[in-house]
């Protein structure tokens, strides 16, 4: 494909000019070329040169009149990076690699462009376009990457068993690219995923999780999970998820297959959010169903308490995947714990107290919770789904009405522990907590408003039950 049209000709021309000044050949390779052909946006540019990548990066920086510190140099890897406007540029000299069986870290040596293309993971990532003026735009496609893009298939440049054994992370990348691009994995390549899957044991969990998260963020993430399952990788990296698979039958009654249900929920929520943690909540919302599954005569299959048990499992799963054990984990935990609450409200008479409690407990995560719950409505019966969604519309409308009148999002009772201690001239103790809980429950039930005047009598009565007397009156307290 002589003269490949590159829309951003300016930046590539400047890189080519820098290479010509150094008298070295330079090529844009890999992801940018692939995505450009596919019409996908890409701001990451990988440049391979026959010579020093670091030297070329420094020359490009001079072409753009960037300061010396603009170039980040990684001498151990022979690479350099710099940023031009919103472009991320990485430079490296052409390399060839050899691997030892017990390590994914290769022995790296200087090589030719052909050597560099040979070491690429997939044919669609082995494309190179020359940037030097003499051969501007010349495409080098030694493995038929263009044909594979047109055929929408994932294939390795060399024998797939060797490619995956050398660098097992490429197995996760194969599934990730198939998911992101909507491509198929060729049978020979897929067979190698099955035979080499145990090699993933030498890969760090951080790198596996990074690829898994990219699969989760795909437009239809279920496709990636189904591929991971089909090749046998999913049981190795996510055994808890595999336990969701299968249907038990008793007295002619079966339950839904929670593996496929969860994937449908994940696809559903992906239609409405690109938030990784909302999607993780979809993945984990039913994770404890296998442990809580029971058959009750006359009632059928139950999963009582799976939401609470699932919430308790979230930290351990996050820890194993090396996911952040911070507010992101707590968000997922909260969504898992509360995911049944709005669904239950949509099936019964809605009381203001139930709405207040949901607003209080969900807080700022109410939108995420309602999005998850809508995604959780799956059925082969389209009328049933529509009916539940209409009921959800009613629940959301009433939630807005209660929120507008009571301002319960992230609600905190006006009567705090400090006020209770001052009124009864007490230090910290269990009595303070008991009174706080009673006042909070009274507000949520709608028995009193969330203000000091409305709650004063209840405060005094609850204190009396514990043998406490106020040392100030309401008027005196308000005038302090």
Automatic annotation (TrEMBL):
Keywords: ATP-binding, Magnesium, Metal-binding, Nucleotide-binding, Nucleotidyltransferase, RNA repair, RNA-binding, Transferase, tRNA processing. Residues 182-241 form the tRNA nucleotidyltransferase/poly(A) polymerase RNA and SrmB- binding domain. Residues 259-352 form the HD domain. InterPro entries: HD/PDEase_dom, HD_domain, HDIG_dom, NT_sf, PolA_pol_head_dom, PolyA_RNA-bd, tRNA_CCA-adding_enzyme. PANTHER family: MULTIFUNCTIONAL CCA PROTEIN (PTHR47545). Belongs to the tRNA nucleotidyltransferase/poly(A) polymerase family. This is HD domain-containing protein. It comes from Aquirufa avitistagni.
């Amino acid at each position: 494909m002589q003269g490949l049209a590159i829309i951003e000709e300016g930046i590539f021309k400047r890189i080519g000019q820098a290479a010509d000044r150094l008298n070295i050949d330079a090529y844009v390779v890999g992801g940018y070329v692939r995505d450009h052909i596919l019409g996908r946006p890409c701001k990451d540019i990988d440049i391979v040169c026959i010579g020093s990548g670091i030297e070329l990066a420094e020359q490009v920086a001079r072409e753009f009149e960037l300061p010396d510190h603009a170039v980040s140099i990684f001498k151990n890897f022979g690479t350099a990076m710099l940023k031009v406007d919103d472009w991320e540029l990485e430079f490296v000299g052409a390399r060839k690699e050899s691997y030892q069986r017990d390590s994914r870290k290769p022995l790296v040596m200087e090589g030719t462009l052909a050597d560099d293309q040979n070491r690429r993971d997939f044919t669609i990532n082995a494309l190179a376009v020359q940037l030097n003026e003499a051969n501007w735009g010349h495409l080098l496609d030694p493995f038929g990457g263009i044909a594979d893009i047109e055929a929408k298939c994932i294939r390795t440049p060399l024998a797939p068993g060797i490619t995956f054994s050398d660098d097992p992370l490429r197995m996760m990348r194969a599934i990730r690219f198939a998911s992101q691009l909507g491509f198929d994995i060729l049978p020979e390549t897929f067979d190698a995923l099955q035979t080499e899957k145990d090699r993933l044991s030498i890969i760090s969990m951080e790198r596996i999780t990074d690829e898994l998260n990219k699969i989760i963020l795909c437009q239809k993430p279920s496709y990636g999970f189904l591929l991971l399952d089909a090749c046998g990788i999913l049981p190795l990296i996510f055994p808890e998820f595999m336990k969701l698979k299968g249907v038990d039958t008793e007295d002619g009654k079966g339950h839904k297959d929670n593996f496929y249900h969860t994937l449908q929920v994940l696809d559903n929520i992906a239609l409405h959010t690109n938030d990784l943690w909302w999607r993780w909540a979809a993945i984990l919302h039913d994770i404890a169903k296998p442990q809580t599954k029971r058959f009750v005569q006359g009632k059928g299959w139950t999963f009582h308490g799976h939401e609470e048990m699932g919430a308790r499992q979230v930290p351990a799963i996050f820890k194993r995947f090396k996911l952040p054990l911070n507010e992101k984990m707590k968000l997922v935990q909260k969504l898992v714990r509360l995911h049944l609450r709005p669904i239950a409200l949509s099936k019964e008479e809605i009381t203001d107290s139930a709405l207040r409690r949901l607003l209080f407990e969900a807080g700022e995560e109410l939108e995420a919770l309602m999005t998850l719950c809508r995604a959780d409505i799956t059925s082969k019966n389209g009328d049933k789904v529509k009916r539940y969604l209409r009921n959800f519309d009613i629940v959301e409308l009433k939630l807005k009405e209660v929120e507008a009148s009571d301002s319960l999002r992230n609600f905190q009772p006006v009567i705090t522990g400090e006020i209770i201690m001052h009124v009864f001239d007490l230090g910290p103790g269990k009595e303070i907590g008991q009174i706080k809980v009673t006042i909070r429950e009274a507000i949520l039930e709608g028995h009193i408003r969330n203000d000091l005047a409305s709650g004063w009598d209840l405060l005094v009565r609850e204190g009396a039950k514990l043998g406490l007397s106020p040392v100030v009156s309401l008027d005196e307290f308000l005038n302090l």
